[in-house]
Specification:
It comes from Flavobacterium jejuense. This is Carboxypeptidase-like regulatory domain-containing protein. The protein is mainly beta. Helices cover 5% and strands 43% of the residues. Strands 10, 14, 15, 16, 18, 22 and 23 form a seven-stranded antiparallel sheet that branches. It has a four-stranded antiparallel sheet with strand order 3-2-5-6, with no helix packed on it. The protein has a four-stranded antiparallel sheet with strand order 8-25-11-17, with no helix packed on it. The chain has two domains: 19-94, Carboxypeptidase-like, regulatory domain (Immunoglobulin-like); 107-321. The longest helix has 16 residues, at 2-17. It has one helix at residues 2-17; strands at residues 21-26, 37-39, 45-47, 53-55, 63-67, 74-77, 85-88, 107-112, 123-125, 130-136, 145-153, 157-161, 170-174, 178-189, 192-197, 203-208, 213-217, 230-239, 252-257, 260-265, 271-277, 283-287, 296-297, 309-312, 315-321. It contains one helix and 25 strands. The relative contact order is 0.21.
């Protein structure tokens, strides 16, 4: 009799502790919306996964704020969720001016190389929810210019020296990491990222220690370069496992220090090579899980160092079409 009772309790209790999923769907098409920004309390948050779902265990706030390019923002009380489903309405104001070009016409590809290094101390760790935006200039005013490829440099190893003063040896250590990132685009608003440029499908990819430069081909997305240029951004969505599956994760964790609970940033990789310059800043930063997330000039440690400028040295390829 006792064994029957135990079995009954297990099957009865298990559903109560099972991890249900919240689905985020397009209001019109009822299709799932992947990688929606879900802002929680205290500058915390997560992203929906590839299936537009978020784990119920993350919803510890009374309310959540959802944002996604191409959709109206939504703030909702967790207690008001119905059938574990959230619908977002598409926003037509994000539809950009269509650039008409003849894909059969001739073009010349212009290449702009990345600026990279493996100096670990001059690298920047972009936390989950962090977004870095880099300027792409247009020196082909009056011509149709399509962005073909974005080239992203990462630091794949650290170099140090042994402590032996007489026989110092160089020690090279390979970094191990695998994280999912998203590309977004913004127009140029007086030298800073402005309005988002809508793409029908999210541009997501993984960065790992396999290569020091990742080429992201975006030619199928028809992103055209305005005369005034635009900004391309990198958003850290979170880590992936050994099977390249996205691991839903918040940017912070709570640890015990001297008997007190302290919120600290979760260590994430890769590190991006920071370029120290004295020219105008071409790189900006913001934190996606901040309700008032404003673009600020990017500095490696978050603080301005005299008049030194910090930039991320991304590269890119442009298809410049002939004029007729």
């Amino acid at each position: 009799m006792k064994s029957i009772l135990v079995i009954f309790l297990v099957f009865f209790i298990f559903p109560l502790f099972s991890q249900e999923k919240i689905k985020i769907l397009d209001f019109k098409t009822k299709e799932p919306i992947p990688f929606v920004t879900v802002i929680l309390d205290n500058n915390n948050g997560i992203y929906s996964d590839e299936n537009g779902e978020i784990d119920n265990s993350f919803l510890t706030s009374e309310k959540i704020h959802l944002t996604c390019i191409g959709y109206d923002e939504l703030e909702i009380l967790v207690k008001d969720l119905l059938d574990n489903t959230i619908f977002l309405k598409s926003n037509t104001t994000f539809l950009n001016e269509v650039v008409v070009s003849n894909k059969n016409s001739k073009f010349k590809t212009s290449k702009f190389d990345v600026t990279k290094h493996n100096n670990f101390m001059d690298g920047h760790m972009l936390i989950i929810g962090g977004e870095i935006s880099c300027f792409i200039n247009n020196s082909n005013e009056g011509k149709t210019v399509q962005i073909k490829t974005i080239k992203i440099p990462v630091i794949t190893k650290t170099i140090s020296f042994s402590k032996d003063k007489e026989n110092k040896k160089q020690i090279v250590k390979k970094l191990k990491f695998a994280s999912k990132f998203k590309l977004s685009f913004y127009d140029n608003n007086n030298g800073k990222p402005g309005n988002p440029i809508y793409t029908p499908k999210s541009i997501v990819f993984n960065l790992s220690q396999e290569k020091s430069v990742f080429d992201i081909n975006i030619s199928d997305y028809d992103i055209y370069l305005p005369n005034e240029g635009l900004f391309v951004s990198l958003i850290n969505l979170g880590p992936v496992d050994e099977n390249d599956k996205f691991i839903q994760s918040e940017p912070f964790e709570v640890k015990q220090f001297n008997g007190k609970q302290v919120k600290v940033v979760k260590p994430t990789k890769p590190f991006f090579p920071v370029i120290k310059e004295w020219n105008a800043s071409k790189t900006f930063y913001r934190f996606s899980f901040d309700n008032d997330s404003k673009w600020e000039m990017f500095y490696k440690h978050g603080k301005k160092n005299n008049s030194e400028v910090h930039n991320l040295g991304i590269g890119y390829e442009l298809n410049v079409y002939e004029q007729f």
